[in-house]
Amino acid sequence: MKIIGKDKGEINEIVYNNTVYYNGKYRRYPTITELKGILDEIISSDSTTEYIRITPFYINEEVDMQIEFEEFMFYIECRDWFDEKDQEMHILDCLEPIDTPRALNDVKLGAILYPLCKHNDIVSYQKALEEYKDSLRDILPRMMKIAKSEMELNEEHLPFGCFCFEIHSG
Question: Is residue 107's pLDDT more than 80?
Fold first, then answer.
């Protein structure tokens, strides 16, 4: 069994401590409530990291299915330098991934889900995380609608499912 490694840095430690257990042997996938707590902890750390990637998924035990929402993945990347054109190209690239069954054609939401920031710009980093956290109020119902349709869920199935989030940082 491969041990999950911990990268250096305060944010990487926060992510590791909230998503890995049993001495690095297993990964946890936080719920929406836990995700918001992790984001608050990251925001209050007053630091940045190379990247954070948060991929939501919905799992339902009653129908024994899971659906990943790569089009609603949050990916913040810190760079030494970028300009408005780089930011725009980054968003457009992220909006049209090659390997996902669904695409997100919403540039405004793309700007929230795929922000860039400079390495030491803590304020912009925190703002991007807050905007993502706030956007979950709109994103979750959209994902639920997709899950209901693609998984053919009915009302009896819903109590047996939940949204979880895979979180990586580096």
Answer: no
